[in-house]
Design goal:
This protein is α/β, with parallel strands linked by helices. It contains 4 helices and 3 strands, in the order βαβαβαα.
Length: 147
């Protein structure tokens, strides 16, 4: 969301019936970005392990903002179970960068992959790829590769 400029947007789009689950550890989202999203989406569930995340200051202001806070780090399998139990979420579309894609893949939490290739080539040393994270460097790690 930070990369597509949500923190700087002022024009509010029409409210969508879709809900977003955003994993934000840093935080990448500023208060202005959270406000923009709360005014745009049906429900915003922010997942973080950062106790200083600006979402905590906005929690009482937006009735459609929900925070899943993990003290000891975000474990994706636990997060998915909590989303199902607390918010009755049965299916998710994951639209993320290479680092989070890698975590979902390595924890075997992806059922289906649909890769959309846009008619634009982006590259560079600091540009994330489809799957980032730690490289596979040993033969015994080959089972971590997924078709």
């Amino acid at each position: 969301m930070e990369k597509i400029g949500v923190n700087d947007r002022k024009d509010h789009k029409d409210k969508m019936a879709v809900s977003f689950v955003i994993v934000d550890r840093k935080p990448h989202l500023h208060a202005s970005g959270i406000e923009y999203l709360c005014n745009w989406v049906n429900k915003l569930i922010l997942v973080t392990d950062n106790k200083e995340h600006p979402a905590f200051d906005l929690q009482n202001r937006f009735k459609n903002l929900f925070i899943l806070y993990y003290i000891d780090g975000i474990i994706l399998s636990k997060m998915l179970a909590d989303l199902k139990e607390s918010y009755h979420i049965e299916r998710l579309t994951i639209q993320s960068g290479g680092t989070l894609n890698c975590e979902f893949l390595r924890e075997n939490l992806i059922d289906y992959v649909n890769v959309v290739i846009a008619p634009l080539l982006v590259g560079g040393r600091e540009t994330n790829t489809l799957i980032d994270g730690e490289s596979i460097t040993k033969q015994e790690e080959l089972d971590k590769l997924k078709p």
